[in-house]
Amino acid sequence: MPTLTLSSREFNQDVSRAKREADAGPLVITDRGEPAYVLMTYERYRALVGPETSLRDALLQPDGDGVELDAPTLGAMDLRVPDLS
User: Fold this and answer.
1) Are 6 and 29 in contact (CB under 8 A)?
2) Fewer CB within 10 Å, N side or C side of the chain?
3) pTM value?
4) How far apart are CA 54 and CA 56, in angstroms?
5) What is the pLDDT of residues 25-50, one digit of tens each?
6) What is the mean pLDDT of the chain?
């Protein structure tokens, strides 16, 4: 499938056309002749990045695969009651 390309100027002048072309496949938008952006359908984007996972769900996975958490620990001296007077 050939890559569809549109200049930034063409994109700005006809966003509806760009959306129609992106329905057929990813659309490369150029800036001064160089590829700068890619427009694609949300469905195609989701297929590329995979399913959404909440932070809660990621932390609850038994193997914790791919979750790195380097949170600082708080000691009793780190907790302060604000002065509201």
Assistant:
1) yes
2) C
3) 0.60
4) 5
5) 999 999 999 999 999 999 999 999 88
6) 84
CA 82/CA 80 separation, integer angstroms: 6
Residue pair 17/29 in contact by the 8 Å Cβ criterion: no
**Looking only at Cα atoms, what is the longest distance across the chain?**
68
Helix H, strand E, coil C: the string for 21-82 is HHHHCCEEEEECCEEEEEECCHHHHHHHHCCCCCHHHHHHCCCCCCCCCCCCCCCHHHCCCC
State yes or no: pLDDT of 64 exceeds 60. no
Cβ contact 40:27 at 8 Å = yes
CATH classification of 4-60 is 3.40.1620.10, yes or no?
A: yes
What whole-number distance in Å separates Cα of residue 33 and Cα of residue 21?
Answer: 19
